[in-house]
Structure formats: structure tokens, C-alpha cells
């Protein structure tokens, strides 16, 4: 067996990537899918399109590499996490479009569920605040909205799953998920690693609709048909946990930041869940077979790369995402303009569902180039907020956060201007790995470990190598001034939505 394949089903595209024993890429196939916006704040995907695109890239990557299924030791799956699919158990037909993690339609429901207890009602058991971000309220909305869905769910005729479960169902016919994805639903007890029947009842999600929870690295089933028929699916990790694994952040205190549609920073906290006092999430990082689970603190930012996409698609100022760096480099700074992309409210560490996006500090001096620069800088400012919260939690819990550098990955880390500004605003070196596709790599590692393709986690550490490092050059005075202006802009997003 020459390779391990990773299915990476993300917010904007589906990919399949082949990796060899050194963790190097041997083939890639990708296909984008449409973003569906039925109403302001609503974001959907067509589940059948997600599946068709996944099926296409499985065949395409084999053709590109000139190999067959016989060359693949195992398949790992990584996915956009909280995105919610409900389908018919008998036919496999979705009863509604997938509700994407960015979607805010459940804001009133979350407020209602919070009641007098507040958003932290379930945090001690799930590690999560009541938020539109997570899957449980999205399932409730589908069951309450689609005619007959609740009755069918209670009768066991429907299945719910995050996107990993949907793909596993289509690939193998099995209704399963892993602990990392289950920990993003608001329905799983973090310590027991099992569905919490009381929370499920209170949120309104029947147990009969839920998938079986398994570890992140074990043989689940063989693929039943298609180009990879007979190959075992042996790893599942939510996308941010997969990136953590691919970055070899395997010891307590190690952290990474992924720059994608949104930004996600995770800090490994070891085998005991640590509950945040500064707006971070507690989540399962990974579980290998029967070993104890490893937990993480997470800072989730809703809109970073999606802001570049908005600049391209909604405003039409650039025609390709990569053009934003060249445009931003034509000016020396942001011209006094700040963009806060609270399209779906603000996630970590502020958790303000009432916030909406603003462009602040506009004068007639500001050009499209200044706005391009402000878009890139907003990603770095939001990351700084999460880092500050992470440091505060680590200090409060006497965790040794290795704040000597920040490991980064994702599509936006190819942008040198952004990475330099990130190092400046953090006052830390920023390090990009040689293999940037760490999300897919993490899923491949999970699957490969389960079938013995890699012998253990020491192989993962040995494969990780740095590609480029950016070191801070900004003065402390300028950094403080920029952060002060950013905070003023953020405060202007509050209290916009009812």
C-alpha cells in the first residue's frame, strides 16, 4: 500500500488528497460547491452536491496519480464541523438543505433555550455556550420546520449527522460520527463521550436520530462502491482537530491556528477537559482507538477567508482571492479604515450574536486598496483577541502555553503580507509548515495509524518540518495604537440585530 487518502469536505469545496509515508502530497483533486443564502444570516449547502463532489474527487485523484484503490491503505475523513444534515434512513434523501455552521437562524431558539441560566446553561457538560454555531439547535429547527419531520425522527425514520456522518453513510451505509464532531453538537457529555439524554430532550433532539459515537482512529467499515470500493475508512476528525493533529500539536501546551473560511486556534490541554473563563470553547481534540481522549481549548472566529470571498464575489473588487495581497501592497497601511466582519455575529472570545459587520474610520482618502489591507488585518486582529483569551485561560489553569511561536496553516497563510502583520500584531514569530494541507494530513494520519501505515505518533512528529517563519518588526507603540482602534471598531458592531 503506497498511500493514505484523505477526504477533506470543507465549507467551500470538497477535496481528496493522497499522502505518502513522509506526509508529502502525492495527488490532489478538488471541486467547489455553491453557497446558498436564502435569507440574511442563513447559509446552506446542498448535501447531495457535497456527496457528488466528494465522489468525483475520489475518482479524479486516482486518475491524476495514475493509481488504483489497491494502492490506498486507508481513507480518512475531515469535515466542516457543525454543519447539519438530516436525511431519510430508508432512502438516504436529505429532508432539507444542510444548515451551515455560519448560519444564524437559530438565534431566537438559543435565547429561548438559555432562559434564566444564560448561554452557559450546558457549558459544564458540553464545553460549549448556547450559540447558533452548534448543531443541536439546527437539528431542532429542521425537525420543527419540515412537515412531519419530528414524528418521523421520533420513530427512528430519520438520521442526523454532521458532514462526516453524511459522507460515511454514503460511503459505507454506517451511521457513525467521531468524538471530535460529536463534541460540536451541544448534545454530547464531554467526559462520558456519550449523548446526554437530558440535554437532547431539553433541546428537542430525539436520541433515535443520532449517530453512534466512535474514536477518531479505528477501522469503521469498508467503502461499498465507487473508485475506492473495498478500502477501509479508518479515521474521522473535525477539520480543526485534524489540522491540530496534522501540525503535530500532540503535547499539552502546543497550539496552532488555521486560516480558512473562518479562523480556528486550538490549544492542547491533555487528557483532562479545561473549561474556559475567557470566551473559549472546550472540545475533544482527538481520541486514538481505546486510548484516553485528548482535549483542547478552541477560539473560533466566524469570518476571515470568507471576508476575502465577500470582497471578491459580493463587491467584485477583485476577481480571484490571491489578488488581494497585490492590491493591499499598493498602500502602506489601512488609511485609518477597519473592517469588522460580524456577518454571523461575533464568535470567540466575545460571543455577540447581536453584532453585525461594520467598516469604520472611512474618509475620502480611503481607497479599495486600503479596504483590501483592512480585510487582511481584520484576520490578524481577531486572532490576537483569541490568543489573549488563550493566554489568560492558560495562566489561570497553570498551563504551559508554548507562546514562543504560532504554528499556522490553511489557504490564507500563503499571503506573506497577512502573515507578517500577524507576527507584528501578536508580537510572536509565525511559522508555516512545509506541508500546508494539515487538515487533510491530520485525517490521513488518523486513518493510517489505525491500519498500521504509520507505527505511532512519533512518525507524525518526525514528518513535521517548518517552511517559512515571519518575525515581528512593529513597535510596541504602533501595535497598541492599532489594537486600540480595532477595539473601537468592534464596539460599533454591538446591538445591531435584535
From TrEMBL:
InterPro entries per the UniProt record, alphabetical: ATPase_NBD (IPR043129), Carb_kinase_FGGY (IPR000577), Carb_kinase_FGGY_CS (IPR018483), FGGY_C (IPR018485), FGGY_N (IPR018484), Glycerol_kin (IPR005999)
A Pfam family it matches: FGGY_N
Annotated binding of glycerol, by residue: 81-82, 133, 239-240
Reactions that this protein is recorded to catalyse: glycerol + ATP = sn-glycerol 3-phosphate + ADP + H(+)
Keyword list, A-Z: ATP-binding, Glycerol metabolism, Kinase, Nucleotide-binding, Transferase
EC number in record: 2.7.1.30
GO annotation terms (biological process): glycerol catabolic process; glycerol-3-phosphate metabolic process
Binding of ADP, residues: 11, 15, 261, 305, 411, 415
Pathway(s) the chain acts in: Polyol metabolism; glycerol degradation via glycerol kinase pathway; sn-glycerol 3-phosphate from glycerol: step 1/1
Sites where the protein binds ATP: 11-13, 261, 305, 309, 411
Domain Carbohydrate kinase FGGY C-terminal intervals: 256-450
Activity regulation (UniProt): Inhibited by fructose 1,6-bisphosphate (FBP).
EC class: transferase
Domain called Carbohydrate kinase FGGY N-terminal: residue spans: 3-246
NCBIfam families to which the protein is assigned, alphabetical: glycerol_kin, PRK00047.1
Role according to the record: Key enzyme in the regulation of glycerol uptake and metabolism. Catalyzes the phosphorylation of glycerol to yield sn-glycerol 3-phosphate.
Similarity comment: family membership: Belongs to the FGGY kinase family.
Protein name (database record): Glycerol kinase
Gene: glpK
